[in-house]
Amino acid sequence: MAKRQTGSSQAGKSQAKKAMEKPAEKPKVATVWLDGCSGCHMSLFDMDERLLELAEKMDVVYSPLVDTKEYPQDVDVALVEGAVGSEEDRRRLLTIRERTKTLVSLGDCAVTSNIVAYRNPHKVVDLLNEVFLENASIGSKIPKESVPALLPYAVPLHEVVGVDVFIPGCPPSADLIHEVISELLEGRMPEIRNRFG
Amino acid sequence: MQKDIVIAPVTRIEGHAKITIHLDNEGHVEDARLHLTQFRGFEKFCEGRPFYELPFIMQRICGICPVSHATASSKACDAILSVKIPETGPC
Fold this sequence. Notes:
The complex is a heterodimer.
Chain A: H1 10-19, E1 28-33, H2 39-45, H3 50-57, E2 59-62, E3 75-81, E4 84-86, H4 87-99, E5 100-106, H5 108-112, H6 124-134, E6 150-155, E7 165-167, H7 174-185
Parallel strand pairs in A: 1-2, 1-3, 3-5, 5-7
Antiparallel strand pairs in A: 4-6
Chain B: E1 3-7, E2 17-23, E3 29-36, H1 42-45, H2 54-58, H3 66-80
């Protein structure tokens, strides 16, 4: 997998600028949950009335909060929460990267894989046995049909695709998320000063 | 004709889910299943960790309802220490 440059690189800057050069149309923004707890999305809501101001400037085209089932084409900014823990997370992230100009790792699970990586010292089969067989009170059976296979290790987003902006924090503060989105909507690449959300 | 109706993903919920509805030859619902498509293994990886870490780790089960997980975990820690927390007194 060819990795794109990460961080506030020159390539990233021109990309963000390019993303915003359509005056007639509002920038298309997506938010995604992969293997996370949704706490980062809750922090996003903590922007409170500032959400109204942002809503004027962008179109939310895909999110767990809207009903779009398929990730659209030509998304300008995607905020992705959670680590990559399953085959499905991986597949979704590859699609997101392909169709998105500026990809943002939102929160510690996306940035470092955080709590999700606590399972990494264990074999997947041991985890599944413990939860679905040993501790099951009814119907002990490991689900296999219709659920995505787990990857041997949960990894952060940039292990799979190139990431343009990293927002740390568990969860990141609403102020930090607001600052990043506002900067991106203005066509600037945000500088993250606070490493700890 | 047998048919499966799949709703994936289920939106406007916390977490990840998918619904499969199996229809029989007459088009009647034969079976319906809710699949939870996220698995992190808290039950396993918490084993052996210092107990005082757990109220913080448990909150990461769900970012919408971290308070209930923190409370339940704190109560479990109280039980481990065999302490009884007194009622809050009058202000």
